[in-house]
Amino acid sequence: MAILKNLEARYREGKKSIAVLVDPDKVEDPSELDPLIRLANENCVHFFFVGGSLVTTTNMGDVIKHIKENVSIPVVLFPGSSLQIEPSADAILFLSLISGRNPDLLIGQHVIAAPILKSNKLEVMPTGYLLVNSGKTTSVAYVSNTTPIPEDKYSLAACTALAGEMLGLRLIYLDAGSGAEREINAKMISTVRKTINVPLIVGGGINTSRKAITALEAGADLIVIGNALEKDPNLLTEIADKIYDWNQSVKTER
Ligand code: 1GP
Known about the structure:
The chain has 254 residues and is of the alpha/beta class. It has a single domain, classed as FMN-linked oxidoreductases (TIM Barrel). The chain has helices at residues 2-12, 34-42, 60-70, 103-118, 139-144, 154-166, 186-195, 209-218, 227-231, 235-253, and strands at 17-22, 47-50, 75-77, 91-97, 123-131, 171-175, 200-203, 222-225. The chain has an eight-stranded parallel β-barrel, surrounded by six helices. The radius of gyration is 17 Å and the shape is globular. It binds SN-glycerol-1-phosphate. The site of SN-glycerol-1-phosphate (1GP) has 15 residues, from strand 8 and helix 9.
């Protein structure tokens, strides 16, 4: 449980973390990732997330191998289904899509995945996944066949997250969906943050350092960035610097 415990400890200390999301479908040759891997290493990124709501290629293992050969940042699977279990990663977000009412993504895929996970070394990170409306329909909303939580229904999101925590889920992930038109708003993040006592992951549509900082100030403990880095990898330096400053100030205060 090293990765989860580390994230929980950082949360308790008030420290923020950042994950870079790699969608294997967008990678033709893993060496394309080298600039991003180098930047992630230089900027002390905490995690690589790998996965997507629909992965159509078979290169997931190669992508993970390439990351792990070049950097010691933990690689965490962010799977759209049990087909995306790749034992060479370090951990898996064991996602239950608790904002939806699709039984397959609440428990069905987990039943299929459980014996596979039992027989490999992936660290299992039980995560309540909440999809929030962000404008146009995202791939995850379509593929999961679930209705995202309306972005102004703060208490609905908070009660869903709380129920997830009460069910024993160790992380809550508020996602607007990959490439979302609108990122999760600050009020939604802060309302959920005030309601739960587990680390809060926020992602989807974070494509400027201002949006990243807004999410962190509102209460995100870990932000996930994918699409924006495909367009501008240097954004990572800008955001990671802010997180570094934030974490330094937390250290000084204590
Ligand atoms: C999507 O939260 C992730 O599930 C990241 O989204 O690709 O929009 O950064 P982006």
